[in-house]
Structure formats: C-alpha cells, structure tokens
Write a structure and sequence with these properties.
Blueprint lengths: L10 E2 L9 E2 L3 E4 L4 E2 L4 E2 L8 E4 L2 E4 L15 E4 L4 E3 L11 E3 L4 E4 L3 E5 L5 H14 L16 H5 L2 E4 L2 H46 L1 E2 L2 E3 L5 E2 L4 E3 L7 E3 L3 E4 L4 E5 L11 E8 L10 E2 L4 E3 L1 H6 L10 E5 L3 E7 L3 E3 L3 E6 L5 H10 L1 H7 L10 H5 L2 E4 L2 H44 L24
Parallel strand pairs: 21-26, 22-25
Antiparallel strand pairs: 1-2, 3-13, 4-12, 5-8, 6-7, 8-11, 9-10, 9-12, 14-15, 15-16, 17-18, 19-28, 20-27, 21-23, 24-25, 24-27
C-alpha cells in the first residue's frame, strides 16, 4: 500500500546500533537538549479538570477524580494546552505511549509532562515517538527493570534524531493530512462492522423468536410464507411467537451444571489433557470450542466439584461477562465462571446456541450479586426458552448457519482491510520520522490547507 516517495540524497550512520542510517543533515541529540522542565506539581484543586492519557491522545475525564488507586495519593501535576504527556513505564503492558494535550488540567505524577524548546515541535515529537514505537522497541532499549521503565535522568540521555524545524513542519503537515484521511477510512469501516454485528444479531433474534427467515416466515409444515398467525408468548421480554410454538423452562430440556477450579498450588492438578474452560476462552464469534488456555489432569478433575461435560452441549459464561456461549466439540470441564447446559431431551444444541445468543440481555437481567454480577444455576434453570419440533429447528439452523457465515465473512474481510490501513499508517509515520522518505518538497494533495504548528509555550 506504501506509494513511492523520494528519498534523501545522502544518509549517515545514526551511531545507534539498532537504528538504520538517517539523513545527513539531521542532528543526533539527547532529550536533555530538547525539553524544558518546570516544576508544576501541586495539590489538585477541586474544580481543576482531570486528564487521562489514552490511545487517542490526552483526554478530559468526565469525573474530577483519578481512576487508579495509586493515582489518588501520589500527587498531581498541571498540564497546559500543547504540552506532551509521556508514559515512562510498562511498555510491554500498554499500547499507550504519549499524546499532546489540547486542554488545561491535571494528571497523575506517574507521567512526564514535557515542553520542547526551539529545536523541536511537540506535535512532531509525538509522531516521532509513535513512529519509533511502531518500528523499534525503541524505549525498551533504554529502560530498566521488569516493568520497562526509566526515570527523568535516564530519559534525558535518550537520543533524539532531530531534523530542522522547517523539515519537522513539513513532516507534520504531511502526517496530519495522511493520518486524518486514513483514520477517516478506518472509522467508516469500524462503523460498518458495528452495523453488521447489529444486523447479524437482528437476523438471529428474528429467526429464533419469531420464525422469520429474511422476509418470509416458516410455518408449521416447514414452508416459507409471507405471514403466519402469532400469539402472545406470555413472556414479557419475548412478546409474540408463532402460534404453533410453545414456551418452557431451561430445566425441562437441559441439566445446568456448575464448574470449579482445582487448587492452583498443586502442580499435579494442572497441565493435563482435559480442556478446562473459563469465560476468557469464550467469545461472540466462537460457535464451537475444543481447546482452552489451561488444561487440568484427571487428578485435578476429581479434586474439586467440576465435571466432565459430554461433547455437543452448551458452555455459557455466567460471570465476567454473562452470556458468552459455545458448543463443546470435545469433552470439557469448566471453572466456576461457566455453566454447562447438558441436554436431557432430543434437542438440537445449535438452535439453542443461537437462541441464547439472542437473549444475552435477559441473561444479564437474571444475574445478581454484590461483589460481581453472576448468573446462578438455579436462575438459569428458570429462564424461558422456545419449544418447537426438531424439523423446524433444523430449517432455522440451516438458514442461520448460511446467513451468519455470509455476514461473518464480510466482517472478517472488513477487519483485514482495517488492519492493512492501520499497518500502512504505522509504516507511513515510521518512514517519515526516521528520514526514509524526503518530504521537504512534498506538495499537499488537492490544494488542502493545514494549520501551521508552533512550539507550545
């Protein structure tokens, strides 16, 4: 996707072992020659806006308080519009690196608040740091400790590859324009995915609660017709259902089985061959499940109240979150965050897989608890479900399998397209801030004007 851009005529060695050559006219400085520091620590006044560093930049928080418990007592610092906020720790755990603030407020002392001198532009520096994050483990090379962090003195010694202010402005204009266009495309595609996900849910819901397949209804003989007679289901949240359908409780078709966790300190209980499912192993787009992130031994299985669940039943998360569901294609066990629905009658598991997908909000309504919301086995047993003959179930399943596969295929293609645009954006930033492309004479497309960036003061 990267188009051809002009390169600089001459390059030189950067002097940094893991960095490639840089343009000959670019300087190699240390951060201490770029940034001005000021002491701006203070106790936050009650009406001072609170800022947070996010993947999308420095944002105002709605509440006048800090989210992390450690931030509530370590002190705060003021941030003025145009200043850089940089995180000097945990590079292996967070995608968040830095951002330029558009607002006045205060932020935790966990961050560095920085302002450049006449050698650099804050907005350019932000692009530069993100470019090196994408292209190298840049800051890890200078950090220490298990949490990949450094203090202000260590930060001061980190190299900064510095083009002239004129070149920084040109690169900044180029990246502002290009990334804005790419972000617009990505945002449209993400909205399309959201629309497709909602459409998929509506297709499933109409099929398993109304017998509607596309613009037709399925009648008692399995024929698709323009309309059928409906009746009140007697269930408030379900509304009307086809007249030949009935309602029953989960307990009339499934045995609800709890899970459990073997003692984690006993090594003989773990790393066996028995699939042991937790809510983290389930997700919206995993219809079938046959593996888990952790497995247990038969000794571990027998040590606690978890059970071995026969294949082709339903595994549903009952907390954190409630309502993620899959059909197990092998024998499995689960932890206490899941419930297993083992069929006790001749039911089609796939039909109820789709049905439970359509009533996730209802399942969450049944959940209760003070520490966290959890759906109990007793409450799940009392949930109302549809009852209809297996032939009609199979027709609905065949329709949904084909239709949801079609929608999922479109969603996956759109996600891959988004990934390509994101990778292109990353490579564009990296190429620009490391001098792999020469943007000194680059002309903006379509005569668009972009506001000049000035140093923040």
């Amino acid at each position: 996707m990267m188009r051809e851009f002009k390169k600089y005529d001459e390059y030189k060695e950067s002097g940094i072992e893991w960095m490639d050559n840089i343009p000959k006219n670019w300087d190699i400085l240390e951060n201490k020659y770029i940034f001005r520091y000021r002491k701006n620590y203070k106790n936050r006044e009650e009406d001072t806006p609170v800022l947070s560093l996010t993947i999308n930049g420095v944002k105002l928080k709605k509440e006048l308080s800090f989210g992390k418990s450690t931030e509530s007592y370590i002190g705060h610092q003021l941030v003025y519009p145009g200043e850089l906020v940089f995180t000097p720790r945990d590079f292996d755990q967070t995608p968040i690196l830095s951002g330029v603030s558009k607002d006045y407020g205060c932020i935790s002392n966990l961050y560095f608040v920085l302002d450049s001198n006449e050698r650099a532009i804050n907005e350019y520096i932000n692009y530069y740091w993100w470019g090196l994050k994408y292209g190298y483990d840049y800051f890890r090379n200078f950090s220490t400790g298990l949490r990949y962090s450094f203090n202000r003195a260590e930060f001061d010694r980190i190299p900064f590859i510095c083009p002239s202010i004129v070149e920084q402005k040109n690169i900044l204009k180029f990246l502002d324009l290009k990334t804005a266009k790419l972000d617009k495309i990505i945002n449209k595609k993400e909205k399309l995915i959201d629309h497709l996900e909602k459409y998929k849910k509506s297709v499933i819901t109409e099929a398993v609660t109304k017998g509607k397949l596309g613009d037709k209804y399925i009648n008692e003989d399995g024929e698709l017709v323009d309309e059928i007679e409906m009746k009140d289901s007697g269930v408030e949240w379900l509304g009307e259902i086809p007249v030949y359908w009935d309602i029953k409780k989960v307990k009339h078709s499934f045995q609800v089985i709890n899970g459990s966790t073997p003692k984690t300190s006993n090594e003989s209980y773990w790393d066996g061959n028995i699939v042991w499912i937790t809510p983290a192993d389930l997700d919206d787009n995993k219809k079938y499940i046959s593996n888990s992130s952790r497995k247990i031994t038969f000794e571990g299985l027998n040590s606690c109240s978890t059970n071995l669940i026969p294949k082709n039943n339903l595994i549903i998360s009952s907390r954190a979150p409630i309502g993620y569901i899959s059909i197990n294609k092998v024998e499995v066990s689960t932890n206490q965050g899941c419930k297993s629905l083992v069929k006790i009658s001749d039911e089609n598991t796939e039909f109820y897989y789709y049905y439970f997908l359509s009533i996730r909000k209802v399942l969450n309504y049944y959940g209760n608890g003070t520490t966290f919301t959890e759906l109990s086995a007793a409450d799940l047993s009392q949930v109302d479900i549809i009852s209809l003959n297996k032939n009609i179930q199979n027709i609905i399943i065949n329709y949904l399998s084909e239709k949801t596969e079609e929608i999922d295929d479109f969603i996956n293609k759109t996600k891959k397209s988004i990934d390509k645009y994101k990778e292109y954006k990353k490579s564009l930033i990296f190429e620009a801030v490391t001098g792999k492309i020469d943007l000194r004479d680059y002309e903006l497309e379509g005569g668009e004007e972009i506001a000049e960036h000035n140093n923040s003061r």
